[in-house]
Design goal:
single chain, 5-stranded antiparallel beta sheet, 5 strands, Alpha-Beta Plaits, 160 residues, alpha+beta
Amino acid sequence: MDHAEVATSEAYTSLMQNASQREKDLIPKTESLQRRIYSPVSATANNHSHNANVLVTVEMQVDKEHEETFNHWYEEEHISKVSSVPGWITSHKFKLFDYKDLSGKSSKPPASYLMTSQMQSKPEGDAEPLYLSDWEEGRAGSITKREIRIFKLHKEFVKP
């Protein structure tokens, strides 16, 4: 999507109305199905060209009282720690702009921030900075939700 308004356009919303019967039958069977739109906040990359084989994602909900401090800490302190993790390639930070529950089940809203880091390989050893746990030191209760996922590339499809 080029911009968030696409999600409310007639062309996009008609996709659900014109879905195949198979698609219509499948959606209610899913535990959770959300459309999320994030706005990019920042991106940091190393100066070397490497293949990313692993993606680490961290979703965080920071309470409103600490949000400004969190953003300052992330940009000024945290990203330098992340970039020192062996195998680190790039990191991106996004803020949730909009979401919609498409499964018809009342799921909880997703966390307000999504941070991603691309890595050469699965983080090992001192990879704690990737998980943003150092933010919580001295700020108990400022994070109301955190979910960490690690995705590994299993097969790469190369265009012929």
